[in-house]
Amino acid sequence: MSVETVLITGASSGIGLELARCFAADGCRLALASRKGDALEALAAELRKAHKIQAQVFTVDLAHPDSPNRLLAHLQSAGLKVDVLVNNAGFGAQGKFVELPLARQLEMLQVNITSLTHLTRLLLPGMIERRRGGILSVASTAAFQPGPGMAVYYASKAYVLSFTEALAEELAGTGVTVTASCPGPTATNFGAAANMNTLGLVKKISMSAASVAHISHRAYRRGQVVAITGFRNQLPAFLVRLVPRAAVRKITRRLNNVR
Ligand SMILES: NC(=O)c1ccc[n+]([C@@H]2O[C@H](COP(=O)([O-])OP(=O)(O)OC[C@H]3O[C@@H](n4cnc5c(N)ncnc54)[C@H](OP(=O)(O)O)[C@@H]3O)[C@@H](O)[C@H]2O)c1
Known about the structure:
- This protein is α/β, with parallel strands linked by helices.
- The chain has helices spanning 14-25, 37-51, 67-77, 102-130, 151-170, 190-193, 200-204, 209-222, 231-239, 245-255, and strands at residues 5-9, 29-34, 55-59, 84-87, 134-138, 177-182, 186-187, 207-208, 226-228.
């Protein structure tokens, strides 16, 4: 079988960067996409050297509605057919919905939901035609409950989880698989980008980006539809189903440190 081509969005740091390392170790050809071209170039150089693979960089701002189409055009002119799409780019913002800038929240919806959906729709037909490959989308344990203090972010991740589970059913028997990875708190640039005032407890239970990426990559390779990373995250995601919804909202509000 020919070498797999893997497109990873948000590969310049954190979980996306570590996922690039996982797929590089498999010998895949990589297409690394995000806004920070320099960071992507440095990663591509490291991975070409370490794994003797091909890695190309695509500088793209997924907050722009036309970016998925432009990215596809660049991939096609580079002669790349994407076998695996890793929808990892995303960000959050902590604060009350009415107090956060509207533009930032709309950008979040564009990156976390619309571009993810758009890229998926552009790349799935080729995968189905070739009967190989799939999609690994990074959701979050935030997908399992409403998130006062990060309302739009939690809702965006609930979309990613629901969308992935629905697609998994639609794609059964096509040879194409989809996986939603649901990490809990992870030590990356996410907290700083979201302007988070995180509780000590949350910091203490944070996982490394490398562990999260390894679990997510393994789940994708196994064709698992939903992968919650680590027991410490699996337990609350299970308990949330048993606790009354009103209590879940109050607990999440406390954890998100909202006045
Ligand atoms: N860290 C956590 O606690 C945690 C928990 C659960 C889920 N997640 C999810 O994990 C994913 C990766 O986040 P991370 O924790 O690794 O944080 P991170 O280190 O801040 O990485 C975020 C990545 O997304 C890219 N990105 C952000 N805005 C973008 C845009 N407009 N266009 C293109 N790329 C953009 C960034 O690249 P550039 O800046 O180069 O554009 C960066 O590579 C996100 O979807 C996040 O929601 C994180």
